[in-house]
Design goal:
The longest helix has about 45 residues. It contains ten helices and no strands. The protein has one domain. It is elongated. Helix content is about 85%, strand content about 0%. By secondary structure, it is mostly helical. Helix 1 crosses helix 5, helix 1 runs antiparallel to helix 10 and helix 8 runs antiparallel to helix 9.
Length: about 250
């Protein structure tokens, strides 16, 4: 009995260290997401958005592979898995405020990210682009262009899986920020800012097919807010990890 009792504090300390480690990892990946979001905004201004057709995508990739992959949002597919660790860190920090809602938010985000990652990427178009450049007949080029159009129609911005995934991820963001309102871990300013930011992005996804211009405006509003929210959350998660507050 004495040996068991003596072992209990070590177990508690180990558990607390584990939660703090999740907060620390969440803080680190949020800094990375902040840098990625800022770089994406600069890229859109300097290089432009995604190509409108497979022929345009092939031309971009054949002229400058790096620029083509950037405009086809390949970095996004590498950034999306970071949300797994962000929501794990947020759950670690908020589990005592409302474990059920924090778990629901994380589950929604996890499902959303997984759906987005399952969509075709720029790498598929890169392969088709190389075959298109090497094609020797018009019929072969036409077939490859049709395949490219099919990929574009089911990609990160158009595919059903990606759209549903985006909705789930943004809904998870709204819910996790609602949990922040139930405690003092993050503060109401971060919570309300997150609700507005994820809410605008959620509305953008819902409206962009019905009212494209309205969807564009909502995304333009949400973009800068993400930068502020990521900064505040990254700083707070890092502080929580340093203080051991998650335990």
């Amino acid at each position: 009995m004495a040996a068991d009792t003596q072992g209990m504090p070590d177990n508690r300390e180990s558990g607390a260290a584990g939660w703090s480690a999740l907060c620390r990892i969440g803080g680190i990946v949020t800094w990375i997401l902040l840098a990625y979001s800022l770089a994406t905004m600069v890229q859109l201004i300097v290089l432009g958005g995604p190509p409108a057709s497979a022929i345009e995508a092939f031309a971009l990739l054949q002229k400058n592979k790096t620029v083509g992959l950037l405009r086809l949002d390949l970095p996004t597919m590498f950034a999306m898995p970071l949300y797994y660790f962000l929501f794990l860190g947020l759950y670690a920090a908020l589990r005592r405020a409302d474990a059920a809602l924090a778990l629901l938010a994380s589950s929604l985000a996890f499902a959303g990210v997984t759906l987005v990652l399952a969509t075709p990427t720029a790498l598929s178009l890169l392969t088709l682009s190389e075959k298109h450049a090497a094609a020797t007949t018009e019929a072969a080029r036409v077939q490859l262009e049709a395949a490219g159009e099919a990929i574009l129609a089911s990609d990160l911005w158009h595919g059903t899986g990606a759209v549903v995934g985006g909705i789930l991820l943004q809904a998870g963001g709204v819910v996790i920020c609602a949990v922040m309102l139930r405690c003092r871990v993050f503060g109401k300013a971060i919570a309300y800012l997150g609700i507005v930011t994820y809410g605008l992005d959620l509305a953008h996804i819902a409206l962009r097919f019905l009212l494209p211009f309205a969807g564009f405006v909502l995304m333009a509003l949400a973009g800068p807010l993400y930068l502020v929210w990521f900064f505040l959350v990254a700083r707070r998660l890092s502080q929580i990890a340093a203080e051991g507050a998650a335990s």
